[in-house]
Amino acid sequence: MLELSFSPFPVLETERLILREHNIDDATALFDMRKDEEVMRYIDRERPKTIEDIYAFIRKLNQDFKQGQSLAWIIALKDTPQQMIGSIGYWRTDLPNHRAEIGYMLHPDYWRKGIISEALKASIDFGFNEINLHSINANINPGNDASRALLLKHGFVKEAYFRENYYFNGKFLDSEIYGLLKSDISL
């Protein structure tokens, strides 16, 4: 079985970005993003009510990492590594089956600049080469055309469309599942 056991926390660098561990100093930026309806339009999760909700969320992310259950990075520009502009990571892992689900979000000021594409490539490379995943999947809201295009650009294949399989905010919602096998790409 695979393990998510890294010490220290794995920091990834790309041409423009640093992907690093969440810390309490990121709480305000994360709170603002997770309360922003534009950012969260296709992320069907409860919105935080207070900054304390975000402190607890960050503590849980870091605890889950220490327990080998998830691996989530803050996205920051190299020029301003302490300023969080987004996040990406393996939020749900199925380590016995060498599979993990990837998710991401980005502040609207940085949309359409290739930031998530760059972070996604680094995360995929890490997932296949360092974690030794066999497959990576993504679960998106079917209305999220930008996310679908991003996944397809990176070689993901649509694996499923689930009708009304998710209950959020008093409604049953659909999900689209995309997958990428290690053998689908040349690393």
Explain this structure to me?
The chain has 187 residues and is α+β, with helices and mostly antiparallel strands. It has one domain (12-184): 3-Layer(aba) Sandwich (Aminopeptidase), CATH 3.40.630. It contains 5 helices and 8 strands. The protein has helices at residues 27-35, 37-40, 51-66, 115-131, 145-153; strands at 12-13, 17-20, 71-77, 86-94, 99-106, 135-140, 157-168, 171-181. An 8-stranded mixed β-sheet has the order 1-2-3-4-5-6-8-7, with helices on both faces. The longest helix is centred in the middle third of the chain and has 17 residues, at 115-131. The chain starts with 11 loop residues before the first strand and ends in a 6-residue tail after the last strand.
- Which geometry do the CA atoms define? globular
The radius of gyration over CA amounts to 16 Å
Please report the first level of CATH classification, the CATH class.
Alpha Beta
How many distinct helices?
5
The share of residues in extended strands comes to 25-35%
Could you give the count of β-strands? Answer: 8
Strand order of the largest sheet: 1-2-3-4-5-6-8-7
CATH topology: Aminopeptidase
Counted up, domains total: 1
CATH superfamily assignment? Gcn5-related N-acetyltransferase (GNAT)
Low-confidence stretches: none
Helix content: 25-40%
| Structural category | alpha+beta
CATH architecture: 3-Layer(aba) Sandwich
Describe the largest sheet. 8 strands, mixed
Q: Give me the strand/helix succession.
A: EEHHHEEEHEHEE
How widely separated are the two ends? Answer: 22 Å
Organism: Pedobacter montanisoli
Domain N-acetyltransferase: 17-174
Protein name: GNAT family N-acetyltransferase
Pfam family, one: Acetyltransf_3
